[in-house]
Write a structure and sequence with these properties.
- The protein has 435 residues and is α/β, with parallel strands linked by helices.
- 28% of the residues lie in helices and 24% in strands.
- Strands 3-2-1-7-17 form a 5-stranded parallel beta sheet. A 5-stranded parallel beta sheet has the order 9-15-10-11-12. Strands 20-21-24-23-22 form a 5-stranded antiparallel beta sheet.
- The relative contact order is 0.12.
Length: 435
């Protein structure tokens, strides 16, 4: 039996590796359109900043390693142009036809420049692939630009803004919406803006960019532009083959990652999943989600029944040295989903003051009638990742706020105060629920 995987990054290689572990007899072929596979795309801004020595350091495996260590054939520069499911084969741009018994579509997503005129100018870059990062770094070294505009205040946008500022550029971020990091929460955005201001990075909200010129974006002079305005799932080829596309614009899949075509699975940034807080389909193009979806797709393609229930939408990003972590829903998002939300935000320290504690802000959101926890945010502190993961675990249960307030969290002065900021926020939330 042959398993063909389209895409050789997070989801695709997770699917191939999982299938191989479960079935040693499978003939597995991975078709990747680019030259590199299995690289840490989330590390690209840190390479630009200089914290990663070279782009090659981000590569985890080579095609040769996959062949030698896992008996998986990985073909690079093999762009698939069509899926012909009736004939159980995919067509490569060269015209070669590759037959399959089962297929995993892991075509990912691509930067979405929308209708921005001038996005193809030589000083305009995306930051989505290793080649993107190499070209941007070469431009920085060769041209030595003094100022830059970053279009988009999402994860990549704010990370690359910090990286460029660290390299000495004057940086302005333009965001089409009134929010940052896709968190529809005015107070959260205010804290992000304050952090950027401390590092002298400009932020313009409600400022859609429609045109890029040679030396400026709108009234902002710039010699470099990075477009980080969002992503678009690569679903066109799958749709042409008869694969159903969901309401999110990504491929619709079951909990087993199977599409509406028998034996065809989809995973990663091209596929949608379920938001466990709302119960609705969601498209969340994150590396953690892609790897998990790929693992389940590979298991089912190998004949083992596994399921992926969904995600709560957890992420963390470093903005100019400060951690901004979120999970679940903000209060405005919860209201739009039909909940009656209450929210509590507290400011504390991640450790006792006598142990050089750092400021940390915690927000928790809950549904007033059911007292169910709906989301949270943690800003600052060395343990932001650990704290947001606690909230994420509670959302997946799901857990009520009075249960959350009684969690037995670890305490020791080098790591946390006796009353963790999460529990203090929960106490404040309980008071609001009784008001």
């Amino acid at each position: 039996m042959r398993l063909v995987v389209i895409g050789g990054v997070a989801a695709g290689l997770s699917a191939a590796a999982r299938a191989r572990r479960l079935d040693k007899s499978l003939d597995i072929v991975v078709l990747e359109k680019g030259e590199a596979i299995s690289y840490g795309a989330c590390g690209l801004p840190y390479y630009i900043e200089g914290q990663v020595g070279s782009a090659e350091d981000l590569i985890v495996y080579t095609p040769e390693q996959f062949q030698r260590e896992r008996n998986i054939a990985v073909r690079t520069r093999a762009r698939v142009s069509a899926i012909q499911h009736a004939r159980r084969e995919v067509v490569i741009e060269s015209g070669e036809r590759v037959p399959y018994d089962r297929l995993v579509i892991a075509t990912g997503a691509r930067p979405d420049a929308g209708a921005i005129r001038g996005a193809d100018l030589p000083h305009v870059f995306a930051l989505h692939t290793l080649d993107d990062a190499r070209r941007l770094n070469d431009f920085l070294v060769r041209e030595r630009p003094r100022n830059a505009v970053v279009i988009g205040a999402g994860y990549i946008g704010l990370e690359i803004a910090g990286a460029l500022r660290a390299r000495g550029l004057e940086v302005t971020v333009c965001e089409a919406s009134g929010n940052t990091l896709s968190r529809q929460d005015p107070e959260f955005t205010r804290l992000v803006a304050a952090c950027l201001e401390r590092f002298r990075i400009g932020l313009r909200l409600n400022a859609p960019v429609r045109n890029i010129e040679a030396e400026r974006v709108g009234d902002i002079p710039c010699q470099l532009v990075v477009v980080a305005a969002g992503l678009k799932p690569n679903v066109e080829m799958a749709a042409e083959a008869g694969v159903e596309i969901g309401h999110t614009g990504a491929i619709r899949v079951s909990e087993r990652m199977e599409t509406n075509l028998t034996g065809v699975y989809a995973a990663g940034d091209c596929a949608e999943t379920t938001n466990l807080v709302t119960g609705s389909p969601a498209w969340l193009p994150l590396g953690t989600t892609a790897n998990k979806m790929g693992r389940v797709a590979g298991a089912n393609a190998a004949g083992i029944r596994e399921r992926f229930p969904g995600v709560v939408g957890t992420s963390i990003v470093r903005v100019c040295g400060v951690a901004f972590a979120t999970t679940g829903l903000s209060a405005p998002q919860a209201r739009r989903e039909g909940f009656d939300p209450i929210a509590a935000r507290i400011e504390g320290q991640d450790r006792p003051g006598y142990f050089w504690g750092e400021p940390v802000t915690v927000e928790l959101v809950a549904d007033r009638p059911s007292r169910r926890l709906l989301g949270g945010a943690v800003i600052g502190g060395e343990s932001a990742a650990g704290r947001i993961n606690v909230v994420a675990a509670a959302l997946a249960q799901p857990m009520r706020i009075d249960e959350f307030e009684q969690l037995d969290l670890a305490y020791a002065p080098p790591y946390a105060p006796v009353w963790d900021p999460l529990l203090i926020a929960a106490q404040q939330l309980i008071k609001q629920s009784r008001a």
